[in-house]
Amino acid sequence: MAGVNALQWLTLTRHGESTGNLAYQAVLGTDAEEVDIPERDADVPLSDTGRAQAAALGRWLEALPEDERPTTVITSPYVRAHDTARIALAETSFAAPRIQVDERIRDREQGVLQGLTPRGVRTRFPGEAERLRHLGKFYHRPPGGESWADLALRLRSFYRDLQTGAPGGRALVVAHDAIIVMTRYLVEELTEKEVMRIEKEPVANASVTRWRHDGTRLAAVCYNDCAHLAAAVPPPTARR
C-alpha cells in the first residue's frame, strides 16, 4: 500500500489493559451471555495495570534512538487508547509531537453483538451466529456493526491521509487489536486466510508492532512485542 510504505517508521501499539479487558476475563469459562461493562465502548478506561503498561511504553519510547522517535502521534478517540498515549508521552523527555485523534482508528464496532460472549451470540442471535459461520469472520457484518473488511476501508483512507500529512515521517499509532491486525493486512498485502490466522493470536495490551522502510517498502521489524513490559507488569491478556 503506497501511502503506508512512504513512511520511514510505522509503530503501532495496542492500548493498555482496560477495565473492559478485566470484565471479559471474569466471564471466561462461565455460562455468561453478556459481559458487565457499564460504560459505552468509547468510554471504557484503563485499569491500574493498564496505566502501568502505558508508563512502561513511554520508557520504551524514551530509550529509542533519536532517529526512531515518533514525529507524529495519532490515537483512537477511545479513552483507553488516548490515555495510553498521554501517559506514555508523559514519561519521555524529548519534544514529543502533539497527540492527534482520528476516529478512523477506533475499535471495530460490533453493533447488536456488542458486549455479548460467544454463548450470548448463539443464544440471542442464532441467525447471526449462522451467518458468521457461513460468511467467516472477515466478511461478516453484524447489524449495526462492521466486518473486518470494513476496517480495511477506513484504514486505507487513514493511511493515505497520514502519508500526505507526514511524508517520510515516523508515526506512532495508539489504537486497538483489530486495527493492528488489519494494518498488517494492508502493509504486508496479506490474504483473508493469512490475516484471520494471525488474528487468532491475541494482540497484547501495550505491545509494539513496527515496520521500517528498507528503501523499497515497509519491512516488518516486530509484531506483538512485549519485551518492554516484562519487568513492569504481568503479561497482558484478553481482548476489548
UniProtKB/TrEMBL annotation:
Q: Which CDD domains match?
A: HP_PGM_like
Q: Which residues form the signal peptide?
A: none
User: What Pfam family is a match for this entry?
Assistant: His_Phos_1
Tell me which residues bind substrate: 14-21, 80
- Write the record's keywords in alphabetical order, separated by commas: Glycolysis, Isomerase
Q: State the family it belongs to.
A: Belongs to the phosphoglycerate mutase family. BPG-dependent PGAM subfamily.
Question: What's the protein called, per UniProt?
Answer: phosphoglycerate mutase (2,3-diphosphoglycerate-dependent)
What organism is the protein native to? Actinomadura mexicana
The top of its lineage is: Bacteria, Bacillati, Actinomycetota, Actinomycetes, Streptosporangiales
